[in-house]
């Protein structure tokens, strides 16, 4: 079996959460990013965080309709990781500079800053949602996930959560949703 | 309009479950009533966020899974540092190192001091094995001391002369496989003819299937019909080395009841620079021998075995890696024994009370006869 895939194939596999393709991209690129972070004051854990963050950015940006991969995946990941790490060093009040000089062509082909900003905004939303979900508690959390994410039928949900009928479950679900919305929008800034 | 009713309409609208007529009516309602329209937009936005959230969680767990399996099968190599980092680390941690070195220095000073003071005797007697000798011990009651029982020196050397069928000593052991495999100290079961392990007043017969005096580890197997296998152990065995100063705790049987004690990691080697063991500071008494030593996340980092008789809270424990080695040896030698070491840890992030509650079921008193 031949294990060579085109960049587009790899990306497509990654976007559909395929473990095999994800694993190939991961294996091809992790070492490079790890070296970058380790050589610049980072730890192994930092390297893992930065690399995974870059993977998330690739994943989420590639979902956008206007996305076009103009460079190699590895170039993309490297450029993003480099910006991420630089940013982290700056915010962590660490005067150390990246010892690697920027490679102009990489910087141009990947609009790293925009994409990082986009993710930061999203991360902020995510942490709000996470906080809201935590405050919401059980069984509301599981109930909402069962309906909106696992797309279960209302009567199955009624069975699973021990409601007498699907109307009761439905009512409960909306009450939960209203509460979650209230919790979420209470902290939300547009 | 009732919000619940409206929500259910919006859900149907988003999922395209409406008939064309209904859709028209709904769109009209939106056009006429700004409040409704706003609610719809907000609801759609919210659900999208909810879904994105789930996708992100799934992605993060996929990435972690891929990372772990690549590390495991050697696909990627996690390096701890690039070469010049040693210097950076030194700058970063020199104060910590200085403090640690001072503590280590003081400990070393006292330890070597005590060793020198009594250096005409054989070294073995300066450390005390923490198994509890039963029946024939003379118990001194010391009211000022919180310790209830203390052993007099003379009893320690007489283990082997005890006649059979009388309880010789007791210690602690813990499950490493819910099927009924336990770890304890080799010295706990020294000279024993019959072994019984006890948890929550239930006694089970056990046999020793592996013994290594060098690492002071023994593996016991419960051979009793009453035993109900425990399918999932809450703790796992930590693979990397614990750091100095890490908080640790143990559970064991210095009395007939389980006792919790906590302390900290003192040194990476044991008595006389023994690299198979570590030094810890913890309140440990005879009977604690063979007890599991946990880090704050509930990972096993060692097996409590001996203490320095001359110094307070200088206790030695066999390293957790010795468990893994012992199990590997045992598997190699015997075909029909299939021990599966606990893989996942359910204790991380729990408070100590919940941790001990879960661990309690897996820690047993060992009685030898």
Structural account:
Chain A: Belongs to the sigma-70 factor family. ECF subfamily. The complex is a heterodimer of chains A (190) and B (369). Chain A has 190 residues and is mainly alpha-helical. Chain A has 2 domains: 7-111, Rna Polymerase Sigma Factor, Chain: A (Orthogonal Bundle), CATH 1.10.1740; 137-187. Chain A is 73% helix and 0% strand. Mean pLDDT of chain A is 77; it is low at 100-109. Chain B is an alpha+beta fold. Chain B folds into 2 domains: 3-64; 102-369, Thrombin, subunit H (Beta Barrel), CATH 2.40.10. Helices cover 33% and strands 24% of the residues of chain B. In chain B, strand 9 and strand 10 form a beta hairpin. In chain B, helix 1 (3-14) crosses helix 3. Chain B is elongated.
Keywords summarizing the entry:
heterodimer, A: 190 residues, mainly alpha, Rna Polymerase Sigma Factor, Chain: A, 2 domains, 9 helices, 0% strand, B: 369 residues, alpha+beta, Thrombin, subunit H, six-stranded antiparallel beta barrel, 7 helices, 15 strands, elongated
Tell me the fraction of residues in β-strands of chain A, as a range. under 5%
Q: How many distinct helices of chain B?
A: 7
Low-confidence segments of chain A: 100-109
Mean pLDDT of chain A: 77
CATH architecture of the largest domain in chain A: Orthogonal Bundle
Number of strand segments of chain A:
0
CATH architecture of the largest domain in chain B: Beta Barrel
- When the domains of chain B are counted, the total is 2
CATH class of the largest domain in chain B: Mainly Beta
At CATH level 3, the topology of the largest domain in chain A is Rna Polymerase Sigma Factor, Chain: A
Largest sheet of chain B: 6 strands, antiparallel, barrel
Radius of gyration computed on alpha carbons of chain B: 29 Å
CA(first)-CA(last) distance of chain A: 51 Å
CATH fold description of the largest domain in chain B: Thrombin, subunit H
- Write down the overall geometry of chain B: elongated
Arrangement of strands in the largest sheet of chain B: 9-10-11-14-13-12
Question: Percentage of helical residues of chain B?
Answer: 25-40%
Helix content of chain A: over 70%
Specify the CATH class of the largest domain in chain A: Mainly Alpha
Total strand segments of chain B = 15
Shape summary of chain A: elongated
Organism (chain A): Polluticaenibacter yanchengensis
Pfam families (chain A): Sigma70_r2 (PF04542)
Family (chain A): Belongs to the sigma-70 factor family. ECF subfamily.
Domain RNA polymerase sigma-70 region (chain A): 26-90
